[in-house]
Amino acid sequence: MYKFKQFFQLFRLKAYSFLGLVWAKRFQSKTLTLNNRKFKITDSASFVAMYLDIFGYQGYKFETKKVEPYIIDCGANIGLSLVYFNQLYPNAKIIAFEPDPKLFEICKTNTAYFQEKLKLYPYAVWNEETTLYFESEGADGGKVEKEKIEGEIINKEISKNTIEVKAVRLQKYLNQRIDLLKIDIEGAEITVLEDCRDSLHWVGNLFVEFHSFENSPQRLGQLLSILENAGFRYYIRSEGVWSKKPFISRDLAAGMDIQLGIWAYRI
Question: Which part of the chain is the Methyltransferase FkbM domain (predicted)?
Answer without folding.
Answer: 73-234
